[in-house]
Structures are given as C-alpha cells and as structure tokens.
Amino acid sequence: MIEKSYFLLSLLQAGLAQNWKINIPPRVTAQEGSCAWIPCHYSYPSHLASQTRIGIWYQGKDSIAFHSKHHEKMLQRFRNRTWLLGDLKGGDCSLIINNIIREDAGSYHLRIEFDNVNSYSYSSATNLHISDFTDKPMIFPVEIIAGKRVNLRCTFNTTCNGTAPALTWDTPIAVPGSVSNTVTQNGVTLTYTTVLSLIPSPRHQGQTLTCRVSYPTVSSEQTFVLTVQYPPQNLSVASLNVMKDSLINIIEGNSAVIICSVKSLPASNLTWRHLNVTVNRTHSNNELWLEIPHITHRETGDYQCVAENEHGAVEGSITITVEYTPRNLVITSIHVIKDSSIGVIEGHSAVIICSVESSPASNLMWRHLNVSVNRTSSSNELWLKIPHITYRETGVYQCVAENEHGAVEGSITITVEYTPRNLVITSIHVIKDSSIGVIEGHSAVIICSVESSPASNLMWRHLNVTVNRTSSSNELWLKIPHITYRETGVYQCVAENEHGTVEDSITITVKSQHFSAWKEGLLGAGIILIVGLSGFFIFKCVRKVKSTERSRTDTSREQSDKSRERKKMKQENEAKYGVSACQCPTYESCERDWALRSHKSKVEEVKSNHNVHVHQKDDLYANCNFDDEAVYANT
Questions:
Q1: For residue 146, what is the enclosing H or E element?
Q2: What confidence score (pLDDT) does residue 9 get?
C-alpha cells in the first residue's frame, strides 16, 4: 500500500514539473569591467499567477548572486552589482551583473519561491565566461574637405543594459569642435553615439582624433587620423643652380635643373610649361623635376609650374636666364639701307641703331675713324644720331658689342650727299696763272677732280663743245695727243650731280716747234756770252782800279788842252766866216747816233728771221734798252 502511495506522489510531481519551465542560454560571455546579461524567461503553474513571488539567482550551488526580496542574503561582492532586468511577475527573469570581475565566472541558475510549498529550482543553468575587455567604439569615416563642416560619428554597441558606458572624444587643441551624444536601442542592442562637428583646415591634416568608451574600471578607444583634402598650396620652385629672386643664371651649354613642389590632398597633377608649351608633367605627385641638358639661349624665359587637383589649382614660376656671348648684331636706320650703306643729304640728320642679342646685356659702342662717338653700358641697343651732318661724317661706322663672355661687331657706311665742291684742275705740265704751254706736236694732259657725293658727271668743254665726259666719277682726264695751234684756248671743266654744279677752267697755249729750237739755242748762246762778258768786265775792273790814280792827272791835263784847242778853232772860224756857233749835233754825237741805229736795225732783222715777236717775254733782247744812253752813254 505504501509503495502504491509513493508511486502516485511521483506521478503528481512529474505532472506538476511540466508547468515549471525556463529559457536561458547555456553560455554567456562577458568582458571584464563591463556588464553581463543573462537572458531568462520562466513559466510556472497558472494557478500561481496572482501570487507574490521571489526570484533568487544562485552562483554555483548555494551562493546567492541576487535575491529580489532579501538583498542582505546576497554575497557581498554581488551587492549593488546585480539586478533583474525584466518584470519577474511577467515571466522575465533576466539577470544583469554590472562591473564584471573574474570571480563572477561560473554557473548561474534560478529559483522561484511563491510559498514554502510552491517553490521551484530550475535545473537549467547558464555558464558565465569572463574575458578581457576588448570591445571598442567605432568611428565612421567621411570625406573631409578643408573649409567644409564635417560631422564625425563614433558609436558603441552593447546588449547589457547595465551601467551606461561613457563615450567621449579626445581632440587636439588645434582641432576645436562641438560634441553631441545620443543613445538608441534596437531590440536588445543599445547604441551609444557621440558626434564631433568641426570645420577642418589643411593644418588639421594628420591630426589624430580619439573616441573612447569608458566603464568604471575599464575603457577602450578608437583613433582616427584626419585626412583633410585641400587644393594645392604652398607651391615652391627650387633649383640645383643658384637662385635669386626667382631667377637663375646659367651659362649656355651647361645643364639646368628646376624642381616644383606643392602641398595638396589628393596629390596634384603637376605640369612645367615654357612659352605656353608643356615641357614636362606628372600625375598624382606633389613634386616634379625639369632638367634641361646643354641649355641654349632659346631656353631663356619664364617657366610656369601648374599644380592641380579636384579641389583647385595653383601655379608659380621661375625665370631662367641663359648667359651667352653677343650674337645676331643688327644695324638698322630710319634711312633706307642698301648694301650696308645709307645716303644722307648734307645738313640733314642721320640716325643709325645697333641692336644685339646677349646675356648679360652688352656694353655697346659706336666708332668712327677709330674714335668712340657714342657708348652705353648693359644695354642691347644703342642709337647714334648725327644732327646737321656734314661731309666730314662720311665713312664707316663700327658698332662693337661686348659682355663678359665675348664680343661681336658690325658696321655701316654713311655716305653724305652734297653738291660738288673743291674742283681742282691739274696737269702733267707746269701750270702758271691757270695756263699751260705745250709745244706743237706734243701731247697735252689736263685733269679735273672734284669732291661730291654722289659722284659727279664731269665734262671737259672747249669753244663750247664737249670734248670729253664721264658719269659718276669725281675725276676726268683730257689727253690731247699731237696738239696743234687749233687746240689753243680755254678749257672748262663742269662737275654736276643731283645736288648742284661747279666749274673751272684752264688755258692751253700751243707753241711753234721752230721758235722753241731757236729760243733754246739763243738762250744757250746768251748764257755763254754773259759768262764771258762777266769775266772780261771783272778783269777790266781790276786793271782800271790800278791805273785810276795814274791816269787821273793825265786825263785832266789832256781834256784841258783839247778844250782850249777846240775853243780856239771855234773862235777862228767865227772870225773867218762870220757865223755863230752851230746848233746841230757835233760830229761825235752824230757818229754815236748812227751807230745806235745801225745796231738796232740788225737786231730786228735777226728776230724777224727767227719768227720771234719783238715784245715776247722769252726774247733775250726784250730787256735791252736801245736808247742811245743805254749803250753809248759814256762815249
């Protein structure tokens, strides 16, 4: 009977146990320092639904981790750290364990007590595993552009509704911003969110932001490095060569290296340009080199570096000056140049300009007749102006350009055009008083020369007839072979160019050949006679000086005797014939007069026979005085 009763009691308990059920996970993992949530739902007999109940969570066999009525019964280390999350009356027995420590690990099971009779310990248990705290907040990356406001969001998710974690931002002082925090729940998941709002600038590039989640005893963090996109800036141009004021000087033939660098994000596309032509480029690189080997003067000029990305562009420049010897010297003028020569009318102004290519600029100098007439320093152009030019400025003008690397020169000829002047007539014969004498049958040569520009047209005229002429020549010869008396006369030379005319003349006297021979013989004989007579007279003078004193007394006595005798004869004749003194010439006088006339007649006869004019200057006798006193004055 007893056995039968025990069997009926067992069946009753089994029936009742079918109404006590629990739903808990077999294993829960919690991180040290955070909280643990053991989800739990239980059921019980329905007739107990209205009764008060007590929920007790045991760790292990009998260590009370939570007691819904008597907290003092809880282990000390669980006090203020555990509580039920749900409504126990509603069947939610979920347990929260806050600030998890290592000792919290173990098995946890639930006991429900209605009264001493209706109590039940659920056999199903949850094993709590404790791990290190490894959960981290999450920062959601966004595109950050300099100058544009951006919101950086950091979140932390948890399923444990225990002590709320603190979610904060750690930012450098250089990155000011504002922070806002929110908490949202999606099912059993709690999401803690903190938002950092800021306006980034290029100086924030590379700054580190930290989002930190903190529990009372543990914390974790996530970092975020600011990648601030910005347009190119701080472009700089450097060179391996010496640079001064964005300028480098390179000797022709050497190499030049220039480097362009810029700051930008994303990296820029860089381009080197010269004379608006791309000479080098690169993509997505903030540095670009340009090397020019064996540089020439053609590479002189400005070089622009252009940096560009999706946010903007910037450019910079450098000037390369290639130093080289002067070259390509050119001489120009406001006048027409032909064959490196210009013509300028006298009295007008002349302007010539010398220009050259060189680096550094040349020292220029104009020279004329090896004399410097104008100069300048460090200039590749030099003007020379000659106001009121005269024929003296005619000639070659040299322009010399020189710098530290070499020299070059060029020249131009200035021809000053002026009217003919300084006409001169010369001859191979002796000219006296603009006249020459030429023996008949001989050749006569007369030369006319003049100064003029352009060269004159020259013409010889005789008896108003042109006998010779030339064009564009400042000298004209006239040669008359076997000249005759017909060519005697005046010869005019006329010089004429587009600016004026000048003339002059010479007289040609043609002489007979016979007269010339006689004149030469007579001249020779006269010279011999003069020499002989000179000797004779010298001899006579010497003798006369010696005998002067001796003969003076005798002469005086003799003249006195003759005078007395003549006077006596005169008186006798007057007495005898009764006639006064004769007024006619004395005998001596008549005799002297006859002698003079006879000599003069002979001289004229000789001249007539030799065709010599009586008054010709070359006549030996032209200077003779045929008056009676000339020859016989002392008789």
A1: none
A2: 41
